């Protein structure tokens, strides 16, 4: 089916490899995807995703199937699979990066704070 707002994209290893521009994560973010979950990410894709306000979480995705209902807690580093009643841990996103995501990305953060707020 089609991507719906709040859906999650679930991938494998080195997700986003070959994409050095912000276009790829920007398109995913514009689809109102809640987050991308993958075993690992290409570093430039990861950075670009945070810059455009798209949460990208490195975790074990082997227990997630299409259609599973998920709930993510960025601060605690926890994904709850409500369908299977399981939990997946990931390294919590650091405070400043969480703030960028909450503000909608780097450009929105700069506008909100009239410059960088570290």
Automatic annotation (TrEMBL):
The keyword Metal-binding does not apply. The keyword Lyase applies. InterPro entries: Aconitase/3IPM_dehydase_swvl, AconitaseA/IPMdHydase_ssu_swvl, LeuD, LeuD_type2/HacB/DmdB. It holds the Pfam family Aconitase_C. Keywords: Lyase. Residues 9-57 form the Aconitase A/isopropylmalate dehydratase small subunit swivel domain. Transmembrane segments: none annotated. GO terms for molecular function: hydro-lyase activity. NCBIfam families: LEUD_arch. PANTHER family: 3-ISOPROPYLMALATE DEHYDRATASE SMALL SUBUNIT 1, 3-ISOPROPYLMALATE DEHYDRATASE SMALL SUBUNIT 2-RELATED-RELATED. Belongs to the LeuD family. LeuD type 2 subfamily. This is 3-isopropylmalate dehydratase. It comes from candidate division WOR-3 bacterium. The lineage of its organism: Bacteria, Bacteria division WOR-3.
